Amino acid sequence: MENSTTFQEIITLLKTLSLEQQRQVLDFMLELSGEPPKQYPGKNLLQLVGTISKADLEIMKQTIEEGCEQVYEFRVVRTTNA
Fold first, then answer.
1. Rounded distance, CA 11 to CA 23, Å?
2. Could you report the per-residue pLDDT of 19-68, keeping only the tens digit for each?
3. CA–CA separation, 24 vs 37, rounded Å?
4. How many Å from the N-terminal Cα to the C-terminal Cα in the chain?
5. Where are the alpha helices (DSSP H) in 3-72?
6. Angstrom distance (rounded) from CA 59 to CA 11
7. The whole model's pTM is what?
8. Where are the domains of the chain?
9. Which DSSP category does 39 fall into?
């Protein structure tokens, strides 16, 4: 059953987010519903080519080499009222 007040609050807040934040919300909602997140075409990344400076790339490389390549898995825990 839909709570229209909650639904409207979500829509109102969603409209204030950037496109990337809206995609993150969508991925989270898909995770909650048990569906896999949508995949975005690699061609969307082409607009980013050349936007990271060589200095920043070197910092990222050093950080990864220093052992910060840890991956955190996000898990949704569902509880039921018994």
1. 14
2. 888 888 888 888 888 876 667 677 777 777 888 888 988 888 888 777 76
3. 9
4. 20
5. 4-16, 19-33, 54-65
6. 39
7. 0.41
8. 4-65
9. P
Tell me which residue has tokens 């061609």.
Answer: 43
Three-state DSSP at 18 gives coil
Structure tokens at 35: 């569906």
Flag whether pLDDT at 69 surpasses 70. no
> Is residue 44 within 8 Å of 36, Cβ to Cβ?
no
At 1 the pLDDT is 46
Helix (H, G, I), strand (E, B) or coil at 32: helix
d(CA 21, CA 19): 5
